[in-house]
C-alpha cells in the first residue's frame, strides 16, 4: 500500500510501497504528484529501473527534456544525463563535478526546467550527498519588511559568469558562447505555476545581481537572501543508497551536490529533466 511520509518537518516526502517500474494507478499517481508540489522533493528508495523505465516514469510528471548536444547522455537515451566520475576507454562517461554550489537547474535560461529526477545506480560509501532546500519555506520565513523590499525585484543571471561555479570541470566559455549567452532576469519571488505559492529564487554562491540596483546595495542583499535560504532549517541532506530516486521541483527547491573521493570510489547517477511547461 502506498505510504507518504514526511522526510523533515520542512521538506520532502518519502514514498513507500511503490514500484516505479510497475503499474501506478491514476489515483496513486495523483497523491504522489500532489506531495511533490506541496513538499518540493520526493524520495523513493530501493528501486530497480532501466533507463527506459526512468524516462517513462519521469513522463508521468510531464514533458522530458532531450539533450541533443550533450556528450554525457546515457547510451541510446538522450533524455538521460549521466553524472559520474567513471570513464570508458579513458574518457569520462558523465559530468563529474556539476552542481557543487546551491542552485536551481538552468537558472541561466529564460524558462528553467520544472524539475529533475536523479536515480542513484552506484554510490560512494561516504560523501556525494545532495542537499535540498525548500524555497517556499525560506520565502514564508522572511521578515515582512524584507518581503516588501524584494517583492518586485529581479535577479540577473549571467551564464558566462556562472559557468565556473556550476561546471568547474568544463572549459571556460568560448568567444562564441560569450556572444550567444545573454544574461536573463528572473523575479526573486517566483509564483509557482501549479501551487500559486511564492518561492524565493536566489541561487547560491554564484555572482548574481539585482536588476537596476547599484552593486554595493545589490551584493549584500543577494548574499543575505542566499545565506538565509540555505539555513539548515529549510534543508535536507540526502545520503544516497543505490536504488534511490529523488525528484525535486525546480520551481520551489534549490539543491547542491557535495564532494566525494573520485579516485577510490564510484558514483553513477542518471538524471532526467522536466521541461519548463508540464
Ligand atoms: C545536480 O545538480 O543535478 C547534481 C546533483 C548531484 O549530483 O548530487
Strand content: 25-35%
How many distinct beta strands? Answer: 18
Percent helix range: 10-25%
Would you tell me which CATH topology of the domain at 3-107 and 114-128 and 238-249 and 260-274 applies? Double-stranded beta-helix
Describe the fold and architecture:
It contains 7 helices and 18 strands. It is of the alpha+beta class and 278 residues long. The protein has a domain at 3-107 and 114-128 and 238-249 and 260-274: 4-Layer Sandwich (Double-stranded beta-helix), CATH 3.60.130. It is globular. The structure holds succinic acid. Residues 83, 98-99, 116, 118, 130, 255, 257, 269, 271 line the site of succinic acid.
Short structural description:
The chain is α+β, with helices and mostly antiparallel strands.
Which key features would you list for this structure?
278 residues; binds succinic acid; 8-stranded mixed sheet; Double-stranded beta-helix; single chain; alpha+beta; 3-stranded antiparallel sheet; 24% helix
How are the SSEs placed, and which strands pair?
Blueprint: E1 3-6, E2 13-16, H1 26-39, E3 41-44, H2 51-59, E4 73-74, E5 77-84, E6 87-88, E7 91-92, E8 115-122, E9 130-134, H3 135-141, H4 144-150, E10 154-157, H5 159-166, H6 175-180, E11 184-187, E12 189-191, E13 198-200, E14 209-210, H7 215-229, E15 235-238, E16 245-249, E17 253-257, E18 268-274
Parallel strand pairs: 2-3
Antiparallel strand pairs: 1-2, 3-16, 4-5, 5-18, 6-7, 8-16, 8-18, 9-15, 9-17, 10-11, 10-14, 12-13
Succinic acid is lined by residues 83, 98-99, 116, 118, 130, 255, 257, 269, 271.
